[in-house]
Design goal:
The protein is α/β, with parallel strands linked by helices. 46% of the residues lie in helices and 15% in strands. The chain has a single domain, classed as P-loop containing nucleotide triphosphate hydrolases (Rossmann fold, 3-Layer(aba) Sandwich). It has a 4-stranded parallel β-sheet. It is globular, with a radius of gyration of 14 Å.
Length: 123
Amino acid sequence: MKDLRKAGPVIGVVGPCGAGKSTLVTALRQRGYRVRHIAQEHSHVPDMWARLVKPDVLVFLDASFETCTRRRNLHWRREDYEEQQRRLAHARAHAHIYVNTDRLTPEEVLQRVLEALRRQGWD
């Protein structure tokens, strides 16, 4: 088994604004994982996530326009959200773990990611 905490591989976390990335990154770090929050949603370079971080595990957190807007009290248009989704397409296609966070608590998101890491041998 590969142990992220001892071996040092990096988990990258991407997703639209308001999907829960910062919360997940904090929770994983508190458990000793090496985690990078990748602001791919703001980049015009489709594979920036891979160029800058080269994560061993890429986690994609997703959420609807309505959820993201409510969580972050964002004043944006649906077109802004759709543009973020377009910018995230490459990362989504290459993600090892995908979690839609719309109906999940932060603890449920964390547990789903930890379970996926275990299933993939990264515990």
